[in-house]
Specification:
Helices cover 30% and strands 30% of the residues. With 273 residues, the chain is α+β, with helices and mostly antiparallel strands. Strand 2 and strand 3 form a beta hairpin.
């Protein structure tokens, strides 16, 4: 009898414990929700951690960021959630599934994201200049993208000089050629470059525009000879001041298909006066 009584007390205590635990759980409530016209470009700040991406009501985990460590996450909106006395901002994100056949999406706390592309995106054929926010982003794209072979070969002609995103955006404003749909903002806004010494190579632009189907090696050799015609021989390029930065952006019909007209070419060197 005593044993049964003890067992009963334990059972009742367990039930009360469960009820107490359940009633103590505070729900998340949506305080504010919005969807953006302008998409943000993000990557996971901690791509190897089990960070949950939730449904809008924060009642179900849809997936974990570590399941897609190299993804680029496109921010489409946000919501403010209240949990007890605490409020937090969550970002609505979308990205490719592993087979690139569909999108995975959901809400994640904003502090788990940072600006920039995920690693896999740099191997894409086309990333616009306007989508870049960091110099390192653009350099990684040039290094990894299969569409940037000729860019890599041309840059090798300048042993003392580095490509910068800033100068590449200036290049778009300096005698560049772009199919209008893919032209960077600076192509239209024409920033004030009076504080810079800019050297343009319009013959290089013309050649690149007419040689889309030529190999990167052959194109680079031709560009080398065109540079020499401007007085920038191999000898001079070896002695060129490292203060000069390279501005370059080559889009060889990679925006839609290899047969599409969406191409663009920008190429200068420049330095601050």
């Amino acid at each position: 009898m005593k044993k049964l009584l003890i067992t009963g007390v334990i059972a009742i205590a367990a039930i009360l414990g469960l009820v107490q635990s359940g009633s103590a759980q505070t729900k998340y409530t949506i305080q504010k929700q919005s969807f953006w016209q302008k998409t943000t470009i993000n990557k996971a700040k901690y791509p190897k951690k089990s960070i949950a991406v939730w449904n809008a009501k924060h009642t179900k985990v849809k997936f974990y960021l570590k399941d897609y460590p190299n993804n680029t996450w496109y921010g489409r909106g946000s919501e403010t959630l209240k949990h007890g006395k605490t409020t937090a901002k969550y970002i609505y994100i979308q990205g490719n599934n592993k087979k690139h056949t569909d999108l995975v999406k959901g809400y994640v706390w904003h502090g788990y994201l940072e600006a920039g592309f995920g690693e896999e995106t740099y191997s894409h054929k086309y990333l616009s200049l306007d989508s870049m926010t960091k110099n390192a982003d653009y350099l990684k794209y040039i290094k990894k993208s299969p569409s940037q072979k000729v860019t890599r070969e041309i840059v090798k002609l300048f042993p003392n000089n580095k490509v910068t995103l800033k100068m590449s955006k200036y290049a778009a404003a300096s005698g560049a050629y772009y199919f209008e749909d893919i032209a960077p903002k600076t192509y239209f806004t024409k920033p004030d470059l009076t504080g810079y010494t800019i050297v343009k190579f319009p013959k290089v632009i013309d050649y690149l525009k007419s040689s889309k189907n030529v190999s990167a090696t052959i194109r680079a050799k031709k560009v080398k000879s065109i540079l020499a015609s401007y007085g920038y021989t191999t000898s001079k390029l070896k002695k060129l001041s490292s203060k000069y930065q390279i501005g370059i952006n080559i889009v060889d019909s990679t925006y839609i298909t290899s047969d599409s007209p969406e191409c663009g070419y920008a190429f200068i060197i420049g330095k601050a006066k």
